[in-house]
Every structure is written in C-alpha cells, then in structure tokens.
Amino acid sequence: MRIAIIGTGYVGLVAGACFADLGNSVVCVDVDAKKIASLRKGIIPIYEPGLEGVVKKNIAEKRISFTTDSAKAMKDSEIIFIAVGTPQSANGEADLKYVFKAAETIAKNLNSEKIVVIKSTVPVGTTRKITALIKKISGKSVPVVSNPEFLREGSAVKDFLEPDRVVIGSENAKAGEAVKSLYAPLNCEILITGAESSELIKYASNAFLATKISFINEVANLSEKAGADVSEVAKGMGLDARIGKHFLNAGCGYGGSCFPKDVKALQHISKKAGYDFRILREVEKVNSAQKTVPFEKLRKEFGSLKGKKIAVLGLSFKPNTDDMREASSVEIIGSLVKAKANVVAVDPVAWKNAEEIIKGVKFSDSAYEAAEGADAIVLATEWNEFLELDFAALGRKMKSKIIVDGRNVYDREKLTSLGFKYIGIGR
Question: Cβ atoms within 10 A of the Cβ of 379, count?
Fold first, then answer.
C-alpha cells in the first residue's frame, strides 16, 4: 500500500521504517527541514537499536522517502497515519494541537478516498473529534481509525515486527480491515474494537504496568522493614501465572515518555468522564518517592554528603535509549548536587542529552574513571556495560567501597566478598 506518515518522531519513524520493511511504499512527513535532510541520508535523530539499519535498507530499496511537502504526500497516499507528539499539558491532559493540525492538513488535501489512522496516543473520544474536524473542513466523510502503538524504547523495531497484539479501533468495517491487512504479515493477534475502547486500551495498559512497578516498590519498602528480600518475594510472586514475572523489578522508580505521561492523562480522562481514578494518584506518589530512595540511603550512610564524591552509573530512564524524560537519575543527581556532593556521571549514550538537563556535575565515559577516589557508586540505569564490571579493580580505585544498587541487579554476595558494602532496594 501507499502510506504517508505525519511525524518523524519516535513512533512515526519506527512505524514508517517497519511498514516499508514489510513491502509498502512509505513517505514520512515532517515540518523540520533539517531533520528531513538528515533522514534522507540515513542519519537517525534518536538512539534506537536496529532502526538505522532498517531505514538505510529501505532508502536503498526506494520503499521509504522523507519530505516536508505534506500536500503531495497526502495526495499520493491511500492510508495516512498521524504520528505526531501529544505532549503533556500543565494539568496532565494530553495536548492535541499537533494532532488537530495534522488533521487539518489532511482535510485540505483530500483528492480521493483515504483512510486516516491515529497512531499518536490520544484521549478517549479523539478519533470521533478528528472525524468531525475533517468533515467540517473538507465536506467529506473520511474513515478515521485508532491504532495505538505499544513500542518500548530500546526494543521498538522488534516490538513493531513481533508484537504481542495489534489494536485497531474502527467504526468503519472496511477501513478496519484495510488497516488490519497492513499487519497481516506479522502473524499476531489483531483485535478490532470500537474507537473509544482502542484509545483506552493504550492508556490502561501503560497505567497498569506503572501500577505494577509502584506496587513492587511498595513491597520493597516493606521488605526492608520486615527483614525480607524483595528479589525473593518478587520471584515467588512472578511464578504465579496470574501475576507473571514481568515488571516486578523493584528499584528507584520508572520514567520515560509514556508511563508518567499516560498515568496523568488517564486521571484527566477519568476526571472529565466524572470518575475519580484513585489508585493512580497513589501510583504517582509512590513513584515520585521511590526516586529519592538512593539519595536517602547515601545520606543515611554518610550523614553529610558535602564534599563526598559520588559516581552515578546510568542516566537514561532505561537502558538502550538516550531518553532522559522523567529519568530517576535526574532526581538522584539533583538531590546530591543540592547536598553539595561532587558527582561524576557515566552513560554510554544519554550523556549528551543529560548535559542539557543536569547541571553541576562532571561527565565521564568510563565507570572506572568515575570511581577514582569515589566515596560511593550509585547504579541508576542498568546498562549492560555496568553489569559485568571488574569490581575488584573498581574497588581499588574507590575511597570507600560502597555501592547503592538502584536496580537490584548486582550479586550481593559477590560484592560483599570483595569488601564492598552493598545497599540494595528492599533487600
């Protein structure tokens, strides 16, 4: 099929590249001329494993192209995806100005039958609003379909090509089947629902996972007081098929572009619908408090942190991405700097973005260099390169051998045998 994708951000670029890889003809549209010029050369503006290879391959095969000419892209396509950002407003509501602008562009360039697909994460009822807006501007009835994304940063290409499920919300059976056919090669469960159900599935899924993380972090805090080890507790819980082992890793809180934003947005959606989604307020509170735990453990250990050198390993909100949005490291380092500690931070990819956000720290490209003369190390993000460090060599460089394991990934017995004081979360 001939597909146009409005927006070359994280979702739009991954979707465009993967649809092209499945054999479709894809044109990706963006107003940022500089970004489009780079994409035409195969230069990817985000860090996402595997994405650059897919883009370059499909540029070479002439299945994907990039343009700022939205009018031509709209007119030449059969299916148009809206994949623009929906940033969070001050009150927690999703800001839909880019979605509405994309819809206006589509409405002004209708030259034949089209199917419009909303890939952006939008509040319940948006699909119907976009349908009405396009008809108001163009005078034509165009089927608008909801098709939320479930991509995880760091594994987005794999998630797109090997999904757990595809959700399609459509009131038009023919349009729903057309969008379904795009995903047929993936051989996965494809659920066709009403538009409102599809929109809510995305928010409900992310909010539930955020709730699961906050729940296990509460269990971690209880475990410390009760003398239990949350790693053992989580393993025992996860063996129950009704619960499952995923998202039961206690630590210093979740971050990123989806969970914090979607938890707030779902509360706002609920409020507008006249319902108080009480549990999500507590999920937010727990997560916010959890980000302070590594700092509090250091303060308990040292008393005053003034002049103490602390090495922080990992800056991005999770491994395999350069995304710093809502990253726990920001809260941890901010508290350390305020306490007048000397902070050296290490991250293989995200340090460039971190420089724009985190002030008053030094950045290093080596955990061993950062550990030189350090009073303590804090693991904030579990990048692979931090998992199998030479801890004996690391310890010889440190002033005092203290490790705060903010992700509970290290072997406590091994570190203890090497003379470290190991401080985990809920252990």
Answer: 26
Would the CATH topology of 202-287 be identical to that of 291-423? no
When pLDDT is cut at 50, 70 and 90, the band that residue 134 belongs to is very high
How far is it between the farthest Cα atoms of the chain? 74
Where residue 88 falls among pLDDT bands split at 50, 70, 90? confident
In DSSP notation, 254-280 reads --SSSHHHHHHHHHHHHHHTT---HHH
Distance CA 283, CA 203 (A): 14
Q: Environment class of residue 62 by beta-carbon count within 10 Å: exposed (0-12), middle (13-18) or buried (19+)?
A: exposed
* Residue 258 among the catalytic residues: yes
Task: Determine the CATH number of domain 202-287.
Answer: 1.10.1040.10
pLDDT tens digits, one per residue of 392-413: 999 999 999 999 999 999 999 9
> 329: helix, coil or strand?
helix
Q: 143: which 2 tokens? A: 């089927």
Tokens representing 83 are: 């994949």
Strand order in the sheet with 421-423: 362-364, 342-346, 309-313, 376-379, 402-405, 421-423
Domain boundary assignment for the chain: 2-193, 202-287, 291-423
Q: Which pLDDT tens digit goes with each residue over 171-184?
A: 999 999 999 999 99
* Residue tagged active-site, from 18, 28, 252, 258: 258
% residues pLDDT > 90 (the chain): 97
The candidate with the shortest Cα–Cα distance to 257, out of 91, 81, 55, 9, is 9
Contact 418, 396 (CB under 8 A): no
Q: Mind listing the pLDDT tens digit for each residue in 308-353?
A: 999 999 999 999 999 999 999 999 999 999 999 999 999 999 999 9
CATH class of 291-423: alpha beta
Q: Per-residue confidence at 97, pLDDT binned at 50, 70, 90? A: very high
Residue 91: what pLDDT? 84
Superfamily of domain 2-193: NAD(P)-binding Rossmann-like Domain (3.40.50.720)
Q: What is the pTM of this model?
A: 0.93
CA distances from 386 to 306, 373, 409, 415 (A): 26, 18, 10, 14
Rounded to whole angstroms, how far apart are CA atoms 4 and 119?
12
- Residue spans of alpha helices (H) in 142-258: 156-161, 173-183, 195-226, 230-238
